[in-house]
């Protein structure tokens, strides 16, 4: 009888010994949670890293570009900045300088209004300039470098105005110092606009600085 009881006590003790580590697991998990450590049994898959806009295009074929017309650049939006992209414009030979300025400005404006190419879209480029806008030269009494848009410049969205000013200032449509005199179809005062580093970096927050100039 004594032997049987000892065996039973030993069996019970063995079961208790095996149960104690199991009971300790929840306690250990609670302690780890209290320390800010979260145990995981399988790796967590958060999916692929988000893609980034790289705003980079391969170099254009210069010979092909020259065959299409006069090399030029337009400023498109990429991310939150303005980035120059190569284009070409056609101007008939023998065009007078005053007329050439208007033709170049209109051609560049048309490029800004055109949706970016597939490669440019893939690189993250967009434009905020809407279609249907025209450009004319100065009225009587305007400075000879004046470009008048068919829409008031002060009514354009900040991104669109920045694109137009920076594109014109980087072309033969600008004055010698890179500033651009713009007006609208009405009698609003003409203004001379500049494309600064701040405008190119953050066109949505920094409008092109301008000053009023004399006009008709």
Automatic annotation (TrEMBL):
Residues 115-151, 175-216 are annotated as: Disordered. This is Lipoprotein. It comes from Streptomyces dysideae. The lineage of its organism: Bacteria, Bacillati, Actinomycetota, Actinomycetes, Kitasatosporales.
């Amino acid at each position: 009888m004594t032997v049987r009881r000892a065996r039973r006590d030993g069996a019970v003790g063995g079961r208790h010994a095996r149960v104690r580590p199991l009971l300790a697991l929840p306690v250990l998990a609670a302690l780890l949670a209290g320390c800010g450590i979260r145990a995981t049994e399988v790796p967590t898959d958060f999916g692929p890293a988000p893609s980034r806009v790289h705003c980079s295009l391969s170099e254009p074929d210069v010979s092909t570009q020259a065959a299409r017309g006069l090399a030029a650049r337009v400023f498109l939006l990429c991310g939150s900045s303005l980035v120059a992209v190569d284009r070409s414009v056609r101007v008939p030979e023998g065009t007078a300088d005053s007329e050439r300025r208007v033709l170049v400005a209109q051609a560049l404006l048309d490029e800004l209004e055109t949706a970016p190419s597939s490669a440019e879209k893939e690189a993250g480029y967009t434009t905020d300039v809407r279609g249907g806008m025209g450009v004319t030269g100065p009225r009587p009494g305007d400075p000879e470098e004046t470009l008048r848009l068919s829409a008031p410049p002060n009514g354009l969205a900040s991104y669109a105005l920045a694109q137009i000013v920076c594109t014109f200032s980087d072309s033969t449509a600008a004055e010698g110092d890179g500033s651009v005199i713009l007006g609208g179809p009405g009698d609003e005062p003409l203004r001379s606009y500049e494309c600064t580093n701040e405008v190119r970096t953050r066109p949505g927050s920094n409008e092109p600085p301008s000053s009023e100039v004399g006009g008709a």
